[in-house]
Design a protein that fits this description.
By secondary structure, this protein is mostly helical. Helices cover 63% and strands 1% of the residues. The chain is built from 16 helices and two strands. The longest helix has 29 residues, at 295-323.
Length: 329
């Protein structure tokens, strides 16, 4: 009986597998971006208008920053007539009026961040403890309704309420107090501005934090109750850590807009009597650029303001990443 044998090459004589001259083989991408674009073009088309908006109104205007280093004359070249270097930068650095409005901007930005950031957190935590849905919805509706009002309406309501013959002074008169000129007194402007900001923005921020609170697992509250934690302990050890990423994200965004104090509201509320405390960088830019036609000087100040904002948001993001482990990028 014959048996067939197959010859197996020895280890020394076995041919090595072919090698790829261009390095290790790359995985084949089954669906390229072109195929995905062809398949989901309806979804990608939704991003066309937002991208065009940012391109036309955010990125293309950055080219105009070149007039901060060139002399611009109305009716001439859109990019300036003559290169002047850092002339306009030295002008605003030696201008005492600029440093006054810069200090006012820091004051208003710090007060707005100090009061307008924590109040929505506190209001959201309090509303989260309300068990009656009707009361909770009523408070939510009343609190975030001012967010949908235009800044012109908010400024008009504020000025009417705080006028010399307005409701607030009528109440003060009933209490035996003399009328207070809230709108004309420089010392009251920061209080009026921050108060109107709280009234307008607190409700909308509360909605964001309430949405974050709904994502917290109920088992964490149950475990805290089993361990003997009361409601305050549950808020401190469960609720606040649960919304911490949202808080940090909004805090970084608020720090990024620290220098961009609300231009429209300040412009509507202030007057020459309140310039010592109300005039900020954005309103100073408006008067210097639009009213005085010093476009190159205003562009230099605006570029300086933008650089400070970029440094602030980058620093806040890096600090948050290293300390909290949460960041925007």
């Amino acid at each position: 009986m014959s048996t067939s044998t197959t010859s197996v090459p020895s280890a020394g004589t076995q041919d090595p597998p072919p090698k790829n001259r261009h390095g290790p083989a790359r995985p084949v991408v089954r669906r390229s971006w072109r195929r995905a674009l062809r398949r989901d073009w309806q979804l990608y088309s939704l991003a066309v208008l937002p991208l065009l908006f940012f391109l036309v109104f955010r990125y293309l205007p950055m080219i105009g920053n070149v007039i901060a280093f060139r002399r611009f004359e109305p009716g001439g070249s859109i990019l300036g007539e003559q290169w002047v270097g850092l002339r306009y930068v030295r002008m605003f650095l030696t201008d005492p009026t600029f440093w006054q409005v810069f200090r006012n901007t820091l004051w208003l930005g710090a007060l707005t961040l100090m009061f307008c950031f924590p109040i929505p957190v506190v209001l959201a935590l309090l509303l989260n403890e309300v068990r009656r849905r009707s009361l909770k919805r009523f408070v939510q509706s009343i609190s975030y309704l001012p967010h949908f009002l235009s800044i012109v309406i908010v400024a008009g309501i504020t000025m009417q309420m705080l006028a010399t013959d307005g409701p607030v002074n009528h109440v003060l008169g009933r209490l035996g107090q003399d009328p207070i000129r809230f709108i004309q007194e420089p010392g009251w402007f920061r209080t009026v501005y921050v108060g109107s900001e709280i009234w307008q923005t607190a409700g909308w921020g509360t909605i964001l934090y309430l949405a974050a609170l709904t994502t917290i697992d109920e088992d964490l509250y149950e475990a805290a109750r089993i361990d003997g934690a009361n409601r305050w302990r549950q808020i401190w050890h469960v609720a606040l850590p649960g919304i911490r990423p949202t808080m940090i994200t909004l805090l970084i965004l608020n720090i990024g807009t620290f220098m961009a104090v609300g231009f429209e509201k300040v412009l509507l509320l202030y007057n020459p009597l309140t310039y010592p405390t109300a005039d900020v960088v954005s309103t100073y830019l408006y008067r210097a650029g639009v009213e005085s036609n010093s476009f190159s000087y205003a562009a230099a100040i605006g570029l300086f303001e933008a650089i400070i904002g970029l440094v602030l948001i980058t620093s806040a993001n890096q600090l948050s990443r290293r300390t909290m482990g949460t960041s925007l990028w």
